[in-house]
């Protein structure tokens, strides 16, 4: 994907964030790097994860479809790529962050049943 930048500072911020992702070298940082997620998009994704956690705390129903739709609003370049959404939510869980979100969204799926055996 060829990103367009309005200013050199915007481009520099993007490059510096990607460099930090490489230094972090976690599953999550590798996913963010691979999908070319910007720092602003990452911040919005974390806000979404907080929102899902709040919904769960309030016993409101959550669904992977609604989560994915919101992710596509944040990262429109990957609209329709549900794998990206799953990978990011799973990486947060594996990192000990928003651990309740991934099971609530994807825990019912047979392909993830091995995680809860």
Structural descriptors:
single chain; mainly alpha; 117 residues
Question: What does this entry look like structurally?
Answer:
Helix 3 packs antiparallel against helix 4 (64-74). Helices cover 63% and strands 0% of the residues. The mean pLDDT is 94. It contains six helices and no strands. With 117 residues, it is mainly alpha-helical. The longest helix has 19 residues, at 39-57. The chain has one domain. The termini are far apart.
Topology:
Layout: H1 8-24, H2 27-34, H3 39-57, H4 64-74, H5 82-94, H6 101-106
Helix pairs in contact: 1-2, 2-5, 3-4
Radius of gyration over all CA atoms, rounded: 15 Å
Structural domain tally: 1
Indicate the percent of residues in helices. Answer: 55-70%
Largest sheet: none
Q: Could you give the order of the helices and strands?
A: HHHHHH
Approximate shape: globular
Total beta-strand segments: 0
Number of helices: 6
What would you say about this model in short?
The protein is mostly helical and 117 residues long.
């Amino acid at each position: 994907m060829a990103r367009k930048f309005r200013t050199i500072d915007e481009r520099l911020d993007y490059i510096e964030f990607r460099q930090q992702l490489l230094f972090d070298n976690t599953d999550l940082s590798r996913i963010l790097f691979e999908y070319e997620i910007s720092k602003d998009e990452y911040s919005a994704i974390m806000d979404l994860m907080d929102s899902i956690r709040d919904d769960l705390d309030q016993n409101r129903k959550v669904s992977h479809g609604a989560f994915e739709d919101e992710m596509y609003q944040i990262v429109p370049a990957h609209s329709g790529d549900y794998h990206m959404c799953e990978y990011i939510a799973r990486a947060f869980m594996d990192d000990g962050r928003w651990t309740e979100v991934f099971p609530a969204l994807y825990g019912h799926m047979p392909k993830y049943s091995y995680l809860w055996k």
